[in-house]
Design brief:
single chain, 247 residues, alpha/beta, 2 domains, five-stranded mixed β-sheet
């Protein structure tokens, strides 16, 4: 059955994400949002690749052909969905998911280095340019204790700085490859994942598209869920969500 949904008109950049349907359950729905407008355009009662493709293909090809960029995390299924459903779109791996990957490995290195001071994790993961004078002093003390942690922190900041520059896709790709060649000695896990998704990560530099708007959409969905005390019927839940975002 064709799913009535007019939210797709003229949409060029979308984000695909997942939400848990019930708290504490590994039971996910897939959320599609217009990242430019910050609006929800579809909710799918599945996290399975084939189900997502089947539902999205119910939109006319002329609508799907207008989508130019799809921002996703590095979950294996989403890029395949984009390829099957949106013929003219490129996959953009969300920069915040990539930075999260680097930060998680940095935090692991912090623990391995025996740094457990109160607030040390926060200071190491915070953007260096946003640190207060007091935090900078604390950071210097922390980094003196471990050469490996010091290099890891330096490379984290270098990686973040790449994203801040006005680069072309090719320039961005070259800079990330250069970073990988150096940083892999410390960031073994993150560098492997980044290398495997390098094209999608580099596509960020086309238009600096991110899934940032998806966080706002997901937070609003959670609020609607709480206000409704949960939905037994998914179709009713979907209709309610789409109606709330069409205001």
């Amino acid at each position: 059955m064709h799913r009535k949904n007019t939210g797709w008109a003229g949409v060029k950049r979308i984000g695909i994400d997942e939400i848990s349907k019930r708290k504490g359950h590994q039971n996910f729905a897939t959320v599609i949002g217009d990242v430019e407008a910050g609006k929800l355009i579809e909710v799918i009662d599945s996290h399975q690749q084939e189900d997502i493709i089947e539902i999205l293909k119910q939109q006319p090809i002329e609508v799907r052909a207008k989508v130019e960029e799809v921002s996703v995390d590095m979950w294996g299924g989403f890029p395949k969905v984009v390829k099957k459903v949106f013929p003219n779109a490129v996959v953009v791996i969300d920069r915040f998911h990539v930075m999260k990957l680097v930060n998680e490995e940095l935090n692991k290195i912090r623990r391995q280095s025996g740094v457990s001071d109160r607030g040390s994790k926060f200071i190491l993961l915070k953007n260096g340019k946003d640190l207060t004078a007091e935090e900078k002093t604390k950071l210097e003390e922390i980094l003196k204790r471990s050469k490996r942690l010091g290099k890891a922190y330096e490379w984290k900041e270098e990686f973040r700085a790449i994203y801040e520059q006005p680069l072309t896709v090719e320039e961005g790709k070259r800079q990330i490859q250069g970073w990988l060649d150096q940083a892999r000695v410390v960031y073994s896990e993150a560098s492997t994942t980044i290398r495997n998704h390098l094209d999608g990560i580099s596509n960020y530099f086309r238009n600096r598209t991110t899934s940032g708007a998806m966080e706002g959409i997901n937070n609003r969905i959670k609020l609607i869920k709480r206000q409704a005390y949960g939905f037994v019927n998914f179709n009713n839940f979907r209709e309610r969500l789409l109606a709330c975002f069409s205001d």
